């Protein structure tokens, strides 16, 4: 008896029964600690996060300057000065526009008051009239209570005295206090901006050193995986920020020009606000739209300006979101729409408005990290935009849910991008393998197995008239080799060459006159799999004949429907395992029909199929997929017509 010992220096680990639960509890505690650290350390983490994201945004500019043969330090300082100038320009522009808009508001006072009166009359006024009518009706129905008697005489003298109001006046503030009150709101943003710029400079200066330290900290044992993760996150975030900044600036510029043409005051201000708020997913631009529409509705007695403003925002948002962003980001940004909304709620709860703006890039970092860290992979599944299930898994899941309609809808959607043979090979066949594995393990009850087969029959029947991309069936090298050998062995080489060339160029026409006997195996899904093979062979011009497993076993060798088929396809998902019944079936077929071409499939890899078929008969063709099965049939057709070029029917034994 051989006893395996643990490697030296590595003791055996015995996990207690409660180890998985302890591991889950440790994960929950770790998550709670991380969230608490993010919440209570936001005063420190927000500037650092802004610096990291700003470095991602400025990295392409720094690299461009470096390509122009500028030094590292000058390139970084130029990029940071450019960012600072942009921030100061935006701040000054917003301030100037606010001052101008505040100075112009008295000009629109009459229109604003008239519009407010109209709104009150249409809403509050009607509500007041309705309430007055209701109160009058109630007074007529219910008797009114008499007023309480007023105290007189001694009772009036003993009544408590009414307290006198007391006013407290503070001393007038000094000029220093006024300056402190005026500058205190601006001190915190200026301080944060200074910290962000300084940290950004150091991050850009030590970018390679920080990358090496992260690799050493998180993945020095797997340099390839860690380097790929860091590069993927850096490239993805840089591309996301640069592309979104370009789209937002373009959208803000178009909105500013459009509002100026419409005549809305402060058009440049609303353009800047729209460009900034577009960093907030989904709702950012509509906050700016509401402000602009309210102002346009207030300053004009009519509603024309407000309607034009709303139409402008709708058109810009549709063009930017449905045309510009897919062209720049691709059709997928890495996050699902639900993940973007949930992330916005979560980060705004943690960090307020700054978290709302940073929610998408921060979540994108987490999802990218989850693609390479096994313990964080669940975040990629929950928040990423990749399908949670493969098409084959989705196909089988719909069968288990007894929902063939959804499977048919999925098939019609996939057939817009692939051919029917590819759909059957990559989706249906893989799903049938999953079903067979569950049936082999005994987890499918007989009634559930019957429902799955009925659903499969419905799907195959509905795909009878389905149109996908054109099937591109390539003849294998074995077909050319077999045809060439048979042609070279003929007596009249030139005549044989011409007939072989004609047969080689018209395989589809030859297939129209070739019968193929399709026999299912004994597996639970082999009959449906055989029906798929019959459907595909019919589409390729063959004349398939479908038998039953029991009928084929009890059939005589001289039965006409079996005797006239020069090609026999045994279709079973058990081919990779080569069970005893399949080996006996192949041996009996070879004894009955020694000259027929025998094709065995489907359900395994090429090696498994070759082992199951060739090992049992010594002369069978393996077909692990439907495509290879049809190609093997075409090979057999080429060989048949190369041997008998003048024969137009099937080959008899």
From TrEMBL:
<feature type="transmembrane region" description="Helical">
    <location>
        <begin position="279"/>
        <end position="299"/>
    </location>
</feature>
<comment type="similarity">
    <text>Belongs to the autoinducer-2 exporter (AI-2E) (TC 2.A.86) family.</text>
</comment>
<keyword id="KW-1133">Transmembrane helix</keyword>
<dbReference type="GO" id="GO:0055085">
    <property type="term" value="P:transmembrane transport"/>
</dbReference>
<feature type="transmembrane region" description="Helical">
    <location>
        <begin position="21"/>
        <end position="40"/>
    </location>
</feature>
<protein>
    <submittedName>
        <fullName>AI-2E family transporter</fullName>
    </submittedName>
</protein>
<keyword id="KW-0813">Transport</keyword>
<dbReference type="GO" id="GO:0005886">
    <property type="term" value="C:plasma membrane"/>
</dbReference>
<keyword id="KW-1003">Cell membrane</keyword>
<keyword id="KW-0812">Transmembrane</keyword>
<feature type="transmembrane region" description="Helical">
    <location>
        <begin position="186"/>
        <end position="205"/>
    </location>
</feature>
<dbReference type="Pfam" id="PF01594">
    <property type="entry name" value="AI-2E_transport"/>
</dbReference>
<feature type="region of interest" description="Disordered">
    <location>
        <begin position="139"/>
        <end position="167"/>
    </location>
</feature>
<feature type="transmembrane region" description="Helical">
    <location>
        <begin position="77"/>
        <end position="99"/>
    </location>
</feature>
<feature type="transmembrane region" description="Helical">
    <location>
        <begin position="306"/>
        <end position="324"/>
    </location>
</feature>
<feature type="transmembrane region" description="Helical">
    <location>
        <begin position="245"/>
        <end position="273"/>
    </location>
</feature>
<feature type="transmembrane region" description="Helical">
    <location>
        <begin position="46"/>
        <end position="65"/>
    </location>
</feature>
<feature type="compositionally biased region" description="Low complexity">
    <location>
        <begin position="152"/>
        <end position="161"/>
    </location>
</feature>
<keyword id="KW-0472">Membrane</keyword>
<feature type="transmembrane region" description="Helical">
    <location>
        <begin position="344"/>
        <end position="369"/>
    </location>
</feature>
<dbReference type="InterPro" id="IPR002549">
    <property type="entry name" value="AI-2E-like"/>
</dbReference>
């Amino acid at each position: 008896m051989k006893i395996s010992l643990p490697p030296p220096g590595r003791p055996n680990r015995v996990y207690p029964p409660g180890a998985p639960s302890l591991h889950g509890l440790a994960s929950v505690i770790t998550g709670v600690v991380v969230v608490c650290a993010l919440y209570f350390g936001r005063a420190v983490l927000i500037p650092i996060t802004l610096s990291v994201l700003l470095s991602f945004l400025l990295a392409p500019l720094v690299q461009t300057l470096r390509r122009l043969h500028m030094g590292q330090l000058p390139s970084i300082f130029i990029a940071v000065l450019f960012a600072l100038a942009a921030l100061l320009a935006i701040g000054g522009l917003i301030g100037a526009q606010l001052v101008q808009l505040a100075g112009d508001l008295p000009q629109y006072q009459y229109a604003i008051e008239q519009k407010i009166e109209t709104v009150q009359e249409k809403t509050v006024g009607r509500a007041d009239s309705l309430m007055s009518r209701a109160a009058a009706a109630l007074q007529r129905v219910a008797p009114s209570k008499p007023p309480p008697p007023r105290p007189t005489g001694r009772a009036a003298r003993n009544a408590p005295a009414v307290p006198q109001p007391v006013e407290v006046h503070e001393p007038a503030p000094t000029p220093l206090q006024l300056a402190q009150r005026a500058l205190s709101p601006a001190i915190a943003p200026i301080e944060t901006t200074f910290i962000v710029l300084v940290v950004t400079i150091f991050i850009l200066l030590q970018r390679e050193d920080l990358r090496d330290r992260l690799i050493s900290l998180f993945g020095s044992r797997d340099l390839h995986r860690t380097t790929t993760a860091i590069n993927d996150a850096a490239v993805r975030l840089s591309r996301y920020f640069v592309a979104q900044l370009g789209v937002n600036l373009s959208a803000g510029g178009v909105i500013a020009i459009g509002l100026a043409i419409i005549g809305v005051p402060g058009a440049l201000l609303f353009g800047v606000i729209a460009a900034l708020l577009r960093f907030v997913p989904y709702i950012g631009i509509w906050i700016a739209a509401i402000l602009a529409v309210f102002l346009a509705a207030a300053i004009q007695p009519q509603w024309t300006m407000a309607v034009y403003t709303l139409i402008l925002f709708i058109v810009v948002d549709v063009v930017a979101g449905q045309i510009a962003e897919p062209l720049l980001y691709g059709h997928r940004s890495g996050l699902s729409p639900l993940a973007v909304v949930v992330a916005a709620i979560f980060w705004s709860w943690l960090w307020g408005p700054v978290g709302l703006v940073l929610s998408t890039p921060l979540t994108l970092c987490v999802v990218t990290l989850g693609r390479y860290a096994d313990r964080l992979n669940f975040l990629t599944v929950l928040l990423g935009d990749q399908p949670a299930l493969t098409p084959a898994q989705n196909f089988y899941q719909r069968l288990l849910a007894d929902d063939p309609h959804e499977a048919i809808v999925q098939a019609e959607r996939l057939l817009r991008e692939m051919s029917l043979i590819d759909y059957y090979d990559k989706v249906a066949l893989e799903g049938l393998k999953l079903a067979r594995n569950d049936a082999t393990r005994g987890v499918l009850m007989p009634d559930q197995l019957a429902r799955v087969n009925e659903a499969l029959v419905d799907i195959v029947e509905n795909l009878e008239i389905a149109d996908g991309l054109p099937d591109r069936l390539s003849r294998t090298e074995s077909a050319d080799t077999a045809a060439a050998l048979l042609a070279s062995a003929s007596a009249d080489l030139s005549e044989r060459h011409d007939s072989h060339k004609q047969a080689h160029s018209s395989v589809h026409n030859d297939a129209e006159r070739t019968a193929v006997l399709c026999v299912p195996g004994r597996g639970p899904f082999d009959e449906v799999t055989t029906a798929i093979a019959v459907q595909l062979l019919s589409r390729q011009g063959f004349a398939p004949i479908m038998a039953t497993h029991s009928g084929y076993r009890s059939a005589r060798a001289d039965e006409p429907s079996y005797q006239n088929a020069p090609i026999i396809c045994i279709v079973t998902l058990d081919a990779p395992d080569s069970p005893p019944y399949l080996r006996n079936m192949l041996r009996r077929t070879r004894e009955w029909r020694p000259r027929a071409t025998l094709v065995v499939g489907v359900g395994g890899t090429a090696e498994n199929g070759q082992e199951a078929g060739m090992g049992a008969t010594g002369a069978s063709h393996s077909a692990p997929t439907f495509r290879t099965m049809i190609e093997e049939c075409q090979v057999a057709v080429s060989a048949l017509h190369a041997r008998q070029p003048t024969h137009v029917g099937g080959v008899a034994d």
